[in-house]
Amino acid sequence: MTWELEITIRLLLAALLGGLIGIERETLNKSAGFRTHTLVSVGSCLIMIVSISMYLNYPPDINSPRGSDPARMAAQVVSGIGFLGAGTILRSGTGVKGLTTAATLWVVSGLGLAVGSGLYFPAIITTIIVFISLVYFAKLEDIVAEKKRLFYVTIDIDDSPGQIGLLTTILGNLNIKIKKIELKQNFSSGVAELELLVILPATMSTKQVSTILENMDGIHKISFQ
């Protein structure tokens, strides 16, 4: 196999493996998707190829015992990818979003380095593990989280047009999932009683939710079970 063909295979394989992980991020509308992951993987692969080429062209000798060290350029990729990863992390309310995407960028840079150095098998196995983790482990996390963060909440609210819609909008903005809602009206008092089955985010407590909703006009009483 010629050197040119070997280089082409490495770059294409790096693009393929990085793109596979990027597709999963793209389907979830994450800030770093298919193109970003592909570019990071191919770029890392290219840098690794250049590092190895420099070592082969300028090996250690008596006058220069250190010569060229491919590990030095690879280390710069690993540390430099932190800038891209930091750009995908955003603070949202009481939580943080983008950590998984930042982690995938870091892994993809490693895939590029591995493919660039000719370590095809470890790169392919890593891609499979990462893809399974992203697709299937996320579903497992949701199942566990739902069981731990499921609450019944009763809310006394003004029986006026648009009030319930405003409440559900606020809950949605807080990333609170409404699994069930039941309305009990009291026409004499002008107050409606809502019974909701909700799933709270892992970073949010029932006290925080109560404090936020109590400051909303038209809310009279909130109780969690």
UniProtKB/TrEMBL annotation:
InterPro entries xref list: ACT-like_dom_sf, ACT_dom, MgtC/SapB/SrpB/YhiD_fam, MgtC_SapB_SrpB_YhiD_N
Membrane topology term: Multi-pass membrane protein
Keywords: Cell membrane, Membrane, Transmembrane, Transmembrane helix
Segments traversing the membrane: 38-58, 70-90, 110-138
Protein localization: Cell membrane
Chief subcellular location: membrane
Domain ACT residue range list: 152-225
Gene Ontology CC annotations of this record: plasma membrane
Family classification: Belongs to the MgtC/SapB family.
Protein name (database record): Putative Mg2+ transporter-C (MgtC) family protein
Organism this protein belongs to: Desulfonispora thiosulfatigenes DSM 11270
Organism placement in taxonomy: Bacteria, Bacillati, Bacillota, Clostridia, Eubacteriales
